[in-house]
Structures are given as structure tokens and as C-alpha cells.
Amino acid sequence: MLSQGLEMQRLTPENHSRFRWSGWKNLLLPQLNRRSLYVYGSEVAVEEECVRQKEGGVLVIHPFSRLRSYYIMCMVAITFLNLIGIPMEIAFLDGNSGVGWEGFNVFSDTLFLIDVGLNFRMGIINEDSEGAIMDLKSIRHQYLKSWFIPDMVAAFPVGYILLIADLQYHSDSPSSRATKMMRILMFVRILSLVRLLRVSRLVRFFNEVERVSNANLEVVRVFLRILSLFMMIFLLCHWNGCIQYFVPMLEEFPSDCWVRRENLMNATVGEKYSFGVFRALSHMTAISYGSSETPTNEVELWIVMTSIVSGALMYTVMVANTAAMMTDVDITARAYKNKMNHMEDYMTFMKLPKALRMRINNFFQARYAGKWYDEKDVLKWVSSSLREDILMTMCSAHVRKVPFFRNCDINFINAILLELQYEVYQEGDVIIRQNTPGDRMFFIEHGQVLVENEYFQRELCDGDCFGESCLLTGGRRLATAQALTICQLFSLSVDSFHCVLKDYPDIRKELETFQQDKDILLC
């Protein structure tokens, strides 16, 4: 018998439009991609998340939305440029940054201030359950107690201060203006160091990229980690090189400083930067090549020691991250890869056609999502009470939707839950065929299934069930069920059902009465 639950129609351009917001608001909704399907399980669940967001009635950017993806990519680029440009400006440009760079500074400061405001309307991925936190009060509370203060400090609008000062003293005489601007410039240079706190934003943006991209693929996750590691190492070397020149500049280049020794006072910015980075790398790699002279003053001595320590830390971070990535490609992922290698060898040996190979690979990805594990084995590791709680959380609502299970004793339901088997079908797979012996019924966790015969056709989705008539009649299937999307199902076999039923004679009598009173011969 087909479930009496909600009958969902297949999403078509005609009925899909009723879910749409007008114009740009569509960009706030979760998009259908590998990551959202991985989290929500099916197209229907993603569509229901869109409906939930619209019914909320407030403008909140969903963490899986297209706008969020574009925004993160943009902010990664802007933040990285800031973390490169700000030390260069402080150390080398000496107030001659030009209109273009000043404009970029003002634009960046504006963008980071806007970012602070937008974070109060950014949905948060909920690690404890499937879905996202979209409640404004919860978002505000979490942001205020976590990153609000560091973000406000990092967003300090230094670019505006320089712009206002330039406009304020624009009418002064050149000599007076130069004196005042030099004082302001020295103050702003020190103040600009605050903006280097934006490195925390870069790390968080990279984490966001990993979480909202198709990062359930191990290869994508490893690539993002390696990329972020190399970017951090580059920034460390870049900052160190800028500091090498910045500190002597603050002291107005003493006669014994390395800048004068290398005769770089009137050199171009490129030459100064190159020598600074070369000197920093010599310290960090501890090869002393190019910086073999002993520091001549206390400040230079501390700079050299700091460079050496930062180099040691860089090595430590590289080794630790490499080791973590090697062990983080965890046991389940490696087991999955080994199984897939065996499967590839088998498919090659048997000369299976390319289309069939693709279906097999897609099945393994849908079934295990890159992690090899055995549900039965995993559930054996926990106590019987926890096992029941896990299965109750996952499947109880599905079982209760079956009419003849609806009012059954909780102990009987728990016994049924322990017999459920997890199965995955791909789009186009025939789950059951008409006129074949009925051996089990199915509960749909995620996905869409079309049940049809010559007399009727019905589409089922998340939470529905089908094939239950075989549990009571033991007859043949009266309809064919085909997967319209990737389907994650739980099945209950006839043998397991009757095995449980032996311990509950009262329920057996109720079900026999139900069978006589109801027509349950649809599937």
C-alpha cells in the first residue's frame, strides 16, 4: 500500500515557479549542488529548505546560496590583496601610494565594514543537525559572542582617516602640509597594523570555502588545505620581508643598519622589497646566505632572532600539517579508496562497458560518500539503548506513517527498527517490479520514487513508504517502483517482520483484523 502522506509532484518549470522569489532574492536561497545534496539528502529536501527560508519572511543569506559562494570567493581575493598590500604600503611606499591604492584602501575598508553588518544576516551551518541556522536572533547571538569584536577592530577604516586628512590639509602651504601629513602618516602606519588582523578573516573564509563547496570529496578538501597552507607560508615570508625594512625605517635608517650597508636608500620599491624578503628567507631557512653579517644594534638583533624563530615555526607548521593531512585522509576514506581500486580492477578484468562502470562508481559515491563503513558493525559498538535511540531518531517517523504501525506498542516499533536495512538506489534504478514476489517494504529517507502500473501512477518523496502489502499478504507486487533521483531508503524484509511478530501475538491479531478490514493491495 502506498503511504497516505503528502504526494509530491515532480519538479517541473511550471510548478517550480511557485517556489521562486522575485529577482535578486533568489540568490539568497540554497542552490542545488553536490554539497547541498550531501547535507540535505535529496532534491526535495533542498526544495523544502528553500520553502522554509521563504516562509521565514526575513532576508537571510543561506550558507549554501549562490550569493554566499560568490561573496566568499570575492572576500578571499580582497582579504589576500589587503594582507599583501598593507605591509608593502606601511614599509615601502612612504606616503606615495598613489590615487589607485588609496581608492582600493577606501573600497576595502568599506567592504569590511559592510561584511560586519552582513554577518548578522548570514545563515550558519549547523554542525549538530542537517540544515542551517536561519533565525536572526540566533545568528546575532552567535556572532556577537564569537568574531564580532575582532572583525570590528580589523575593519578599522584607516583609509578614511588618510582621505579625510588629505582633504583637510589640501589648502595648506606645501611645507606645512608636508609636515602635518608626515605626522599623520607615521600615526596611521602604526594604526594600519591593526588591519593585519584580517588574516583571521582569511582563515575563516577558507574554512567557509571548504564547508560550502563540494568538499565532501576528499580530493577537494585536501587541495583546499594545501592551498591555504601555502598562502599562509607566503604571507609569513612576505610580512617578514616587509618588517626587515619597516623597523630601520622607523628609526630613520641608522648608519649601521642593513639598509645603508646595502646602499638601498634611493633604490626602487622592487629592489628594497626583494632584498628584504631575501634577508628574511635567509634567516627563516637558517642558511645565512646573503645575511652573514652580525647584527650591529639591539633592534636588528631582535629582528633576526624573530625571523629565525618564525622560520622554525614555519617548518613546524608545515610538518604538522603534512602529517595531519596524511593521517586525516582517514581510515574510512582509505578503505573506500582500496575498495574502489579492487572494483576498478574487477571492472577492467571483466571488460564492463563504460556506462555500467560509471553507474557503479556513482553508486559507491552515493552510498558511501567517500567513506567506507558497515552500519551493522558501527551499531554493534554501542549499547542496545543507544542503538535504539539512533534508529528511533533516523527511522521512527517513517515507520509510524505506515497505517498498520501507527498505533502499535513502542517496544514493537523498536524491535522493527532494529531489523531495518539501509539501501541506496540511483536515478533510473527499478526498486521493485510488478508481478515479482514481494519480499520487503521500503521507507524513503531521501529521494523521489515513481510507483506505477497500468491503472495508476504516483510519485513519492521523503518520508513516504511503499511495498507494505507484502508484509501481510505475502503476494506478488502489483506495481513497479522506480527511482527518479538518488534514493536513500530503509527496507524491512518479510522474514524479519514475521520473526519480530512472533513475540507480539496481540499485535499479530490486530494486523490480521486490519488486513480483513482494509484493501491493501496497491503495491
From TrEMBL:
<keyword id="KW-0813">Transport</keyword>
<keyword id="KW-0633">Potassium transport</keyword>
<dbReference type="GO" id="GO:0030425">
    <property type="term" value="C:dendrite"/>
</dbReference>
<dbReference type="InterPro" id="IPR014710">
    <property type="entry name" value="RmlC-like_jellyroll"/>
</dbReference>
<keyword id="KW-0812">Transmembrane</keyword>
<dbReference type="Pfam" id="PF08412">
    <property type="entry name" value="Ion_trans_N"/>
</dbReference>
<keyword id="KW-0407">Ion channel</keyword>
<dbReference type="GO" id="GO:0035725">
    <property type="term" value="P:sodium ion transmembrane transport"/>
</dbReference>
<feature type="transmembrane region" description="Helical">
    <location>
        <begin position="147"/>
        <end position="169"/>
    </location>
</feature>
<dbReference type="GO" id="GO:0098855">
    <property type="term" value="C:HCN channel complex"/>
</dbReference>
<keyword id="KW-0631">Potassium channel</keyword>
<protein>
    <recommendedName>
        <fullName>Cyclic nucleotide-binding domain-containing protein</fullName>
    </recommendedName>
</protein>
<feature type="transmembrane region" description="Helical">
    <location>
        <begin position="70"/>
        <end position="92"/>
    </location>
</feature>
<keyword id="KW-1133">Transmembrane helix</keyword>
<feature type="transmembrane region" description="Helical">
    <location>
        <begin position="219"/>
        <end position="241"/>
    </location>
</feature>
<feature type="transmembrane region" description="Helical">
    <location>
        <begin position="181"/>
        <end position="198"/>
    </location>
</feature>
<feature type="transmembrane region" description="Helical">
    <location>
        <begin position="301"/>
        <end position="324"/>
    </location>
</feature>
<dbReference type="InterPro" id="IPR000595">
    <property type="entry name" value="cNMP-bd_dom"/>
</dbReference>
<feature type="transmembrane region" description="Helical">
    <location>
        <begin position="104"/>
        <end position="126"/>
    </location>
</feature>
<keyword id="KW-1003">Cell membrane</keyword>
<dbReference type="GO" id="GO:0003254">
    <property type="term" value="P:regulation of membrane depolarization"/>
</dbReference>
<dbReference type="Pfam" id="PF00520">
    <property type="entry name" value="Ion_trans"/>
</dbReference>
<keyword id="KW-0406">Ion transport</keyword>
<dbReference type="InterPro" id="IPR005821">
    <property type="entry name" value="Ion_trans_dom"/>
</dbReference>
<dbReference type="InterPro" id="IPR013621">
    <property type="entry name" value="Ion_trans_N"/>
</dbReference>
<keyword id="KW-0472">Membrane</keyword>
<dbReference type="GO" id="GO:0005249">
    <property type="term" value="F:voltage-gated potassium channel activity"/>
</dbReference>
<dbReference type="InterPro" id="IPR051413">
    <property type="entry name" value="K/Na_HCN_channel"/>
</dbReference>
<dbReference type="Pfam" id="PF00027">
    <property type="entry name" value="cNMP_binding"/>
</dbReference>
<keyword id="KW-0630">Potassium</keyword>
<dbReference type="GO" id="GO:0030424">
    <property type="term" value="C:axon"/>
</dbReference>
<feature type="domain" description="Cyclic nucleotide-binding">
    <location>
        <begin position="404"/>
        <end position="511"/>
    </location>
</feature>
<dbReference type="InterPro" id="IPR018490">
    <property type="entry name" value="cNMP-bd_dom_sf"/>
</dbReference>
